[in-house]
Amino acid sequence: IYHPDKKWYPTSCDVSCMISPDDFEDLVVPTLSKELDFYEASIYHLDGTVALHHLDRLLAIPKLDGVQWLPGTGKPSIQHWVDVMKKIQDAGKLLTVGAENLEDVRAVCENLRPEGVHINVYTDSEESANGILKMAEEWSRHA
Predict the structure, then answer these.
(1) Is residue 89 within 8 Å of residue 113, measured between CB atoms?
(2) Which residues of the chain register pLDDT less than 70?
(3) H helices within 24-81, ranges in order?
(4) How far apart (Å, rounded) are the C-alpha atoms in residues 60 and 55?
(5) Structure confidence at residue 98 (pLDDT)
(6) What CA–CA distance (Å, rounded) separates 114 from 122?
(7) Who's near 79: CB < 8 A, 6+ residues apart?
(8) Which residues pair with residue 99 across a beta bridge?
(9) Distance CA 32, CA 121 (A)
(10) Strand order of the sheet with strand 117-121?
């Protein structure tokens, strides 16, 4: 998802959680389209379950390369959003997610293809980190 040789930046519109799909189309999509024309690679920061009503529209944008999906503070972690992650991946978009624990990583590895998926995960020990790395390596080998 990170493109060191291309002009890119994560686009977003956090206020989208408070506007309707019609307003998103009128107010956000034109500016987003201009941003995507400017960048050579792109990812949209979709922040919170309250912004999910715009996911289908985002996935329909050909120039959008990927989606960073974050359920939001106080919401169930990504292991509970496999359907959203699959939808993003099935649309041919790159996906980046934040894992809160080993079960989040396991849910990604058991339900998604490894191609185009980036998992951010923090852990409290080297042992846990090594276990997560081993799981991810196994996942990517069996793709």
Answers:
(1) yes
(2) 1-3, 143
(3) 29-38, 55-59
(4) 9
(5) 93
(6) 19
(7) 103, 104, 106, 107, 108
(8) 121
(9) 28
(10) 8-12, 41-47, 66-70, 94-99, 117-121
